[in-house]
Amino acid sequence: MANPIKQLAGQTAIYGLSSIIGRLLNYLLVPLYTRIFIPEIYGVVTELYAYATFLLILLTYGTETGFFRYAQDKSKFNTVFSSLQTSLTITSLLFFGLVTLFVSPIANALKYTANPEYIIYLAGIVALDALISIPFARLRFENKSLRFAIYRLLNIGINIGLNLFFLILCPKIATNNPDSIILNIWSPNIGVGYVFISNLVANIFTFLMFIPYIINVKYRFDLNILKQILWYSAPLLIGGFAGMINETIDRILLKFLLPESVNAMEQIGIYGANYKLAILMTLFIQMFRYAADPFFFAQKEKRDAPETYAKVMQWFVIFGLTIFLGVMFYIDIVKFFIDSSYHSGLRVVPILLLANLFMGMYYNLSIWYKLNDKTKFGAYLALFGAGVTIILNIILIPIIGYMGSAWATFACYFIMMLSSYTIGKKHYKIPYNIKKILKYFALALILYAISYIYADFVIWLRLILNSILMFVYLSVVAISEKIIPSKKLKLNKNESKNS
After folding, report:
1. Quick check: 232 pLDDT over 50?
2. Which of 1, 28, 355, 413 suits a disulfide with 359, CB 3.0-4.6 Å?
């Protein structure tokens, strides 16, 4: 690999360390939730966090990428940072105030009349996430990956610790020592509400850690620069919002489109829990995205930038398919991540893994419109994908339930990926090795299909045979990408001839 690829890989690994360790720790809450809450109750967590992703996109309005774009001019760095931070602070506080003021009608509309406090908690979580988005982006911009990792891990650690305290420790104390003073701050009636309370407290703590970092800036608010950034980011906001439709609207629509004879919240809980089994693909894409934006912009002026972008895509596909095969070949182990009462939804896992891989490939392909300041195309593509997602969910959910949502997600990202590639060729030529990428896809899918031949074998034999198939895939990649030195290959050939 060329040096820039190694640089990106290094940055991805650094951000990935915090992302993988942090998200893995965070995802350990999923087996906790699925063993404490029945699917119907876990559906509350799944649904409300789906709303949170939409709200966060709205409250950050695409400014992270805008920050990377305009902060490149060092003379304007403080102005860009302070203008964005001021804007986000105002809009976040305004959002939280409005939600608090109109919490009753909002709760009624979302069918949470009995628990309007959930809406308040969620508004606080999202508002604080928006407030710290640019400080986190600044850490990435300044390559302060260690501080970035520490802040992320502290946030997740506090969240996990409070979940364990409220959901496991306090109930045990209540049973064994009902007169304990600790029970003055705990009530069994709050139940799933402690999931949101824990997240809110963790976000408050993270915001407090950032205060010295935010204050230690010479604030130079510039309305003209803010307008430029917002104009640049507006299509990204639209695209981001549409992207969240693609990513999470299914968990919202299930509640309203499933037949009345079906327990919608239970189905949402099962679907949401199995969605989490795509954790490794999600983590890989997330940690790649943290490193990719600054990297792609830094490579922009180099002569071999297109070749570098092509090589990045190739290695992204290799690692993505490795994750897909790893999860599916060892699904007999992976499935115990969630309680057995949720295993009826395992059939969505391979569909969602590939869907997320297509989404990551689309993110790679999106570099052409970001570098050329043609972010409107990102909005067009995302809106097109959102249309596909909504239409297919409306058609398929009443017929095949959450399987329809999974196939809608798959179709959406596949179509967006192909569309971006087709349009991008006309605006920014990148020599992607399509034949090799298709070869890797074909190999991975053939090996996965082979594993179905012995799907009824005993588990230990299935795992052994699947391990052999994984070795075949990795060996083909190693030879194709010349990870195995060619001299050794030639030497082996000569030895076989002599023998």
Report:
1. yes
2. 413
